[in-house]
Amino acid sequence: MNGSPASLDAAAMTNASVEVVRDVVYGHGLVHRARPGGPVPRALKLDLYLPARHAHTAPRPALIMAFGGAFHRGSKENDAFEAEGGNTSVADYCLRFARRGYVACAIDYRLVTEDPEPGTTPVVSAPERIPTSRTDVVRRIMNLPPATPDMLWRGIEAASDDMAEAVRFVRSRAAEWHVDPARIALGGFSAGARTALNVAFGEKVPVAAVVALSGFMDRADLQRHLSGFDGGPAVLLVSAENDLDYIAEATPGLVAQLRAAGLHCELLDVPGAGHFYQADAVAVHDAHGATTVERAMAGFLRRTLGG
């Protein structure tokens, strides 16, 4: 396993229920970084959250999560932002679900600002249709000029390639990490949720479930990906009452498309919230009623992954 005992996070080890291994290299991706002479490789890393005594248990379900940040910022260590009262970070979700018995991974991926190579497995067919309302805000915060559709497309494609590679890597470590390869779920917040959907449907990487916390997919792209799709993962789509304009507009249609394709799709609404919300935020499940975001995620994963 990449990552030595010395890389164990000492602070995390004070909690006896979870062991954390930082910066496990799961692959490499090409970036330009405004340098002449062509792209250069950079390491892609993940943080591994293992339930205690994992070596003595039967194979467990796994949850692989990608951070949010409009494909421009955030990290596997922290994508909690202060806007609208803040949100629970992907790292925190991984810790919470490792405590529940999942092998969890918070992954790194290439960002738009690195000018990444987009790869050869396109998940977005029309860059000019990529919504920009959130990326425009983030780029202003970062003192960057507006992005072109091609810049955003390259970042989205690179992120999906990276998460797809992370799934393959986790599957290759299944025996070592006591993961059941048939019970792997993807998840993420915002850009990370969008990436998880892109990997499951656009890249067609076989996974059992997807948890999309305020995720988005262009409905025309989803229809294209569903064409000829043999089966597919169960999906939990989470959106807030006052979420980003394009997420609020697209989510009901995405639910209808997935269900029409015969896939198991659950919808969770976070009333009164904007794009940023906490794991313990009150939420309403379309079939199970009042709950919280974390409890809804746990119930969905239990129903679809078992164990």
What is the count of helical runs?
Answer: 9
> In CATH, what is the class?
Alpha Beta
Total domains: 1
Give the SSE order as H and E letters: HEEEHEHHHEHEHEHEEEH
Content-based structural category: alpha/beta
If strands are numbered along the chain, what order do they take across the biggest sheet? Answer: 1-2-4-3-5-6-7-8-9-10
Overall mean pLDDT stands at 92
β-sheet strand percentage: 15-25%
CATH superfamily: Alpha/Beta hydrolase fold, catalytic domain
- Poorly predicted regions are 1-16
DSSP E strands, number = 10
| CATH topological fold name | Rossmann fold
- Give the CATH architecture: 3-Layer(aba) Sandwich
Q: Give the terminus-to-terminus CA distance.
A: 25 Å
Shape: globular
Helical proportion? 25-40%
For the sheet with most strands, the description reads:
10 strands, mixed
Radius of gyration: 18 Å
